[in-house]
Amino acid sequence: MPLELNGYSAHIRCDGEELEMYSVRRKGTRTALCWIASEEGKSFTVHWADESGDTLMMVDIYMDGRFVHAEAHLREPDGECIGVYDTPTQTRPFVFTALKSDDHAATADYSDGALGTICVTMTRMRRYNRSKVFVPRPFSEIGPINEKSKKAGSHAVSLGDPEQSGGVSIDGIDPIGEEKKPFAKFIFSYMPMALLQAKDIVPLPERPSKKRPLNTQEDAPEAGPSRRKTRRTSGPVKEERDNGEEENTLQFMAKLQGELATIQRRLEEAQAAAQRARAVKREASPINVPTTSGDQIVDLTSD
Question: Which residues touch 227 (CB under 8 Å, ≥6 apart)?
């Protein structure tokens, strides 16, 4: 969906598809902003539209702060810019390229925030004159930036190889009565998708869960023909296996009962032996002390 503002709009196309916009917002009543994802080596085109189709205006396009194209919009519903015209019949497309860095390069001044932006402005004019002379517009490449710059890892806009175009119907337009300020400005800030995600501008994709869902009875019929076939033919086999397991269980229980009886018998025998031992101890002959008369002392310690 294009970036819209008061009945006017603009968008960027890459590989014939409109680039998705993120963090769409407005600044005042004349500026609309958003983020788009750039991809190194991809060419793109700039598009705009007038809902009324009745506005006479100049459309100016800026790449990374550089003025690259001026288009006369002569009461039409939409327009586009496919690149920079070297001649009336030859253009060079816009291309996203890696922003080169060099630790020895002087840090350029990008305090205005123009680097990494595509800007489309619309300015009304009362009328225009046709120009007879075509003047190619110069295009300066973005040089290396210092590696310490916060722009490291980003992209810039460059120009691709020359391509033959269908030609332009007029050599140029000289606007007359152009207003001093644009009535609409569209700013597309761009950077690689990885950086957009790292800066939380674009949410990360959800990771698939590694947990396997528990099998339920409702899921069982969806397990496939082979599993359903196995279930149909495995009924009798399962019954025979259950009978065998039951027989083994009964035998094991009988064995345990026999061992328990043996342990119980041995326990009883041990208890009986202990009782006999206590009885023998109680029946031992007591020591008889003879009665003496007078003060006679009996030595019980003598052998």
Answer: 220
